[in-house]
Design a protein that fits this description.
binds adenosine-5'-diphosphate; binds magnesium ion; alpha/beta; 260 residues; 12 helices
């Protein structure tokens, strides 16, 4: 076989193995190996390292797309000084993602604008970066999706979908009243994941008022029971971050020294 035929065979192998990064880099890497007089081992290591890096990047990109996180917010961007009711140590501990290992749920409770979604999304980005399958949904979307699935005969598939991610973020529970059917869907998702996969859930309703969002108080009680059994609860009591920023700006315009 001529050198060129061997080269073409090698291209074929790389294509068959879907090693596109290595295939693309092959000519340049061969040139480099010749000029730098690399050993066979060193050349092969460089070529495969390229592919490993590319495969990792592809996986990360796919995890990030799958997660559907609605904003780029990171835990590191959270201003703890603005929200003294948030326990920094607890959030730092959560950011280590150990809670994903034992399927601990994270409940973020508080009024609008205090950073519940920001913290949940920040945990989501950390989980994606660490290679965990993550999925973000609002409670309303989850319920709508389950409703559609039930009509179209895809209930079981949809339940499996929500059982799959290592971290499921359910945002905005309680903002909209939930009909019995919706509560049943959320209940089943929570039950399926119980002790198996972590849920980060945000809600504007204190635990005591959970009965009010759901038509059937028993369902609310059972849901809470499972959610809280192994959980971390962050009760955020401060004022809205947007309002605070707005007030600080207004105060500055008036010549004051900001809101604090
Ligand atoms: P919630 O989900 O509690 O209604 P969000 O997480 O959506 O609130 O926060 C509202 C806005 O304020 C977002 O733009 C968010 O980034 C910002 N924000 C809230 N709390 C903080 C904080 N402590 N530090 C930095 N930004 C914050
Ligand atoms: Mg929110």
């Amino acid at each position: 076989m001529t050198e060129n035929q061997v080269y073409q065979q090698l291209r074929g192998h790389l294509a068959a193995l879907r090693m596109t990064a290595a295939a693309e880099a092959l000519p340049a890497e061969l040139d480099h190996a010749r000029t730098a007089q690399l050993s066979h081992t060193a050349f092969l290591e460089r070529l495969l390292a390229l592919e490993v890096t590319a495969a990792h990047a592809r996986r990360q990109a796919s995890l990030a797309r799958f997660a559907c996180l609605p904003a780029p917010w990171q835990i590191a961007d959270f201003d703890f000084d603005a929200q003294p009711s948030v326990d920094r140590k607890l959030v730092r501990e959560l950011a280590t993602l150990r809670f994903l290992e034992d399927a601990t749920n994270v409940l973020l409770i508080g009024p609008p604008g205090v950073g519940k979604t920001m913290l949940a999304v920040g945990l989501g980005h950390a989980a994606v970066a660490a290679g965990y399958r993550t999925y973000y949904t609002t409670a309303a979307d989850l319920v709508a999706r389950c409703h559609k699935a039930a009509i179209e005969g895809r209930w079981a598939t949809t339940m499996r979908f929500f059982a799959g991610p290592r971290l499921l973020i359910v945002d905005e529970v309680g903002y909209l009243p939930m009909p019995a059917e919706g509560a049943a869907a959320l209940f089943q998702v929570i039950t399926q994941r119980y002790l198996k996969g972590a849920i980060a859930l945000t809600t504007n309703l204190g635990i005591a008022s959970w009965g009010k969002i759901f038509d059937v108080p028993m369902v609310a009680a059972a849901m809470l029971d499972r959610l809280l059994h192994r959980s971390v609860v962050l009760n955020i009591t401060g004022e809205s971050y947007r309002m605070r920023a707005h007030r600080a700006r207004a105060s500055k315009l008036r010549g004051g020294d900001g809101a604090r």
